[in-house]
Design a protein that fits this description.
alpha+beta; 3-stranded antiparallel beta sheet; about 150 residues; about 15% strand; two-stranded antiparallel sheet
Length: about 150
């Protein structure tokens, strides 16, 4: 007997649940909730509870349907990959800028040393120190100016 009473209570509870619940806004912007489909001029129609597959009410003209997210994990991985790429590009740009500044400073120091009037020397392949003569000094000065034009922008 208690099994039949439990079965009847469960059956009554299952039939009292609404099959579908809708939420929408009317033309004046008032939000409505009901278990009947909204009128055709309703905006922002949402189906809150589904018990059986029901075709959604047609959306008002001009309202965009939200894009369904197929796989949140894949979207997250895609965002993380894009973020890592952006960080890598930024790090590469900073490294390139540091290299450019270092080369610019070296070229300016070289030109300053050549213009100072002091003796400037170079080292040969065997490690011997040789002072620059006037033509070599002008050639080194032209190379330093070219390096400044290249690196100091």
């Amino acid at each position: 007997m208690s099994k039949t009473i439990c079965l009847l209570v469960l059956l009554a509870a299952a039939t009292s649940l609404p099959a579908q619940t809708y939420k929408w806004k009317d033309a004046s912007g008032t939000v409505h909730y009901s278990d009947t489909p909204p009128p055709s001029n309703a905006k922002d129609v949402q189906q809150l509870r589904k018990s059986a597959p029901v075709t959604p009410a047609p959306a008002a003209a001009g309202t965009a349907q939200p894009k369904p997210v197929a796989d949140p994990e894949a979207e997250f991985r895609k965002r993380m990959a894009a973020r890592q790429d952006a960080e890598a590009k930024q790090a590469k740009a900073q490294e390139d800028e540091a290299i450019r500044v270092r080369h610019c400073e070296q070229a300016q120091a070289q030109l300053s040393a050549l213009d100072s009037g002091n003796r400037v020397a170079r080292y040969t392949a065997s490690g011997e120190r040789v002072a620059l003569d006037d033509t070599e000094r002008e050639q080194a000065r032209a190379e330093a100016q070219k390096a400044i034009q290249t690196w100091c922008k």
